[in-house]
Amino acid sequence: MGILDKQRFYHNGHSPIYLRTAGSRLVVRGIFGLIIGGTLLSVVQLGRVIGGAKPSK
Questions:
Q1: CB of 53 closer than 8 Å to CB of 46
Q2: Which residues of 2-23 are buried (b: 16+ CB within 10 A; e: fewer)?
Q3: Helix (H, G, I), strand (E, B), or coil: what is residue 48?
Q4: Where would you find the membrane-spanning parts of this chain (predicted)?
Q5: CA of 45: how far to CAs of 29, 31, 48, in Å?
Q6: pLDDT at position 16 over 70
């Protein structure tokens, strides 16, 4: 899906309401970023615990 297709998709009214405004899209992207970042941090912490090192807190 190209950028133009995405623009058309976002503006044709068929997309979910939270995708219609740029601000909401940024918020959603931020939330997903936090979730992904938190998951990565958890994996790193888990790796340290399994590796025998004390997790830094």
A1: no
A2: eeeeeeeebeeeeeeeeeeeee
A3: helix
A4: 26-47
A5: 24, 21, 5
A6: no
DSSP secondary structure code for residue 24 in this structure = H
Q: Which residue has the tokens 């994996």?
A: 43
The residues, ordered by sequence, that sit 6+ positions from 11 with a Cβ below 8 Å of its Cβ are 20
User: Domains of the chain: which residue ranges?
Assistant: 21-57
- Give residue for tokens 């899209």: 25
pTM: 0.40
* Token couple for 28: 């959603």
Radius of gyration of the chain (CA): 18
- Number of DSSP helices (H) and strands (E) in the chain, helices first: 2, 0
| 50 SS3 class | helix
